Amino acid sequence: MRTFSLSLTMLLRDWRAGELRVLALALVIAVASVTSVAFFADRVWQALTQEANQMLGADVLLLSDHPFAPELSADAARRGLARVDGVSFVSMARAGEATQLAGVKAVSAGYPLRGKLRIAPRLNAQDAETDTLPPPGSVWLDERLSAALGAAAGAQIELGDARFTVGAVLTLEPDRGLSFFNIAPRLLMRVEDLPATGLIQTGSRARYQLYIAGARAATENYATWAKPRLVAGQRIESLGNARPEVRAGLDRAQQFLGLSSMLAVILAAVAIALSTRRYTQRHLDGYAVMRCFGALQGRLFALFSWEFVLLGLFACTLGCVLGYAGQAVIAVWLTDFVAASLPQPGFYPVLQGYAAGLLLLLGFALPPLLQLKNVPAIRVIRREVGAPRQNALAGYALGLSALAALLLWQAGEFKLGATVFGGFSAAFLVFWLVSLGALRLFALLGRAGGVSWRYGLANLRRRSRANAVQIVALALGLTVLLLLTFIRGDLLEAWRTKLPQDAPNRFVVNIQPDQVRPLAQFLAKSGIDAPTSFPMVRARLNAINGRAVSSSDYTDERAKRQIDREFNLSFMQTLPAGNQVTDGRWFTADDYAQGAVSVEVWIAERLGIKLGDRLSFSGGGADVTVPVTSVRKLDWDSMRPNFFFVTTPEALARFPASYMSTFRLSATDPLFTTRLTQAFPNLTVIDVSAIMRQVNGVLDQVIRAVEFVFLFALVAGVLVLYAALLSTQDERLQEAALMRALGARRAQVAGAQRAEFFALGLVAGLLASAGATAIGYVLAERVFQFPWQFNAVIWIVGPLAGLACVAFNAWLGGRAALNHPPMLALRES
Amino acid sequence: MIKAAGLSKVVPNGTSQLVILHEIEFEVMAGEAVAIVGASGSGKSTLLGLLAGLDTPSAGSVHLDGADLFALDEDGRAALRARLLGFVFQSFQLLPALNALENVMLPLELAGAADAARRATAMMERVGLGERLGHYPKYLSGGEQQRVALARAFVMQPKLLLADEPTGNLDAETGAAIIDLMFSLNAAAGTTLVLVTHDDAIAHRCQRQIRLVGGRILA
Question: Domains (ranges, CATH) in chain B?
Answer without folding.
Answer: 2-217 (3.40.50.300)
